[in-house]
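Appendix C: a fully annotated inverse folding record. The material below is reproduced so that readers can follow the format used throughout the book. The structure is listed first as tokens, followed by the designed sequence.
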């Protein structure tokens, strides 16, 4: 199982959900080495196998080696969770090639090539699973985050395209969270989001993890995007 950080765009955390009690969990990290190894230790304290793997996903050439390392370490690959992301501000007139590439390379190109490299291993299991992380920026047009919105809308269409391409041996679904609050977040973020969302609150990390578990276990679903935003995108 390969898991990339993180369920909320711009975060440096890592998280993941195992498929089977006997399976292992691979935690990918880019720069968050300390956090990744802390997560591995937490997983191991719960009696599970886990290991951390480093790779720069903006360099496509590193991705096949990352997938090969994980599959070799655990002997198989059942689930790929594509959640590495950034959340970069750039308006239309301010967008440069550098800011455009920074959003698209991490948010869209990297998960595509992770899926491409992982697909042969996932297909061997007969019930391989890919979960992509979009967000509501792929559904709403945010003028101040234009490249980000385009990258996440691409993740949504990529999810549907790969679901057709990789069926029936691999299911591909996505989650699209709104704001997910953490204790260290500025209070005004939550207040602003709560004013706009019909449920009058932001999301919690556990709710996003529950949604990933739901999609992993929902064997008749593929090509679906589960929006988790408290109604913000309505």
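Designed amino acids, in order:
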């Amino acid at each position: 199982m390969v898991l990339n950080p993180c369920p909320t765009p711009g975060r440096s955390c890592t998280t993941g959900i195992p498929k089977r009690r006997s399976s292992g969990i691979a935690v990918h990290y880019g720069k968050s080495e300390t956090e990744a190894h802390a997560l591995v230790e937490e997983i191991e304290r719960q009696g599970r196998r886990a290991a951390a793997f480093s790779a720069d996903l903006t360099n496509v050439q590193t991705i096949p080696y990352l997938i090969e390392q994980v599959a070799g370490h655990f002997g198989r690959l059942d689930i790929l969770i594509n959640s590495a992301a950034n959340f970069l501000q750039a308006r239309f007139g301010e967008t440069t090639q550098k800011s455009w590439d920074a959003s698209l390379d991490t948010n869209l190109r990297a998960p595509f090539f992770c899926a491409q490299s992982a697909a042969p291993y996932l297909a061997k299991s007969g019930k391989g699973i890919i979960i992509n992380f979009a967000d509501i920026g792929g559904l709403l047009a945010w003028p101040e985050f234009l490249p980000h919105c385009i990258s996440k809308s691409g993740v949504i269409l990529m999810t549907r395209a790969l679901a057709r391409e990789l069926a029936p041996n691999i299911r591909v679904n996505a989650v699209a969270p709104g704001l997910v609050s953490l204790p260290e977040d500025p209070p005004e973020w939550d207040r602003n989001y709560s004013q706009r969302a019909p449920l009058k609150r932001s999301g919690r990390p556990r709710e996003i993890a529950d949604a990933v578990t739901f999609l992993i276990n929902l064997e008749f679903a593929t090509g679906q995007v589960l929006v988790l935003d408290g109604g913000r995108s309505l």
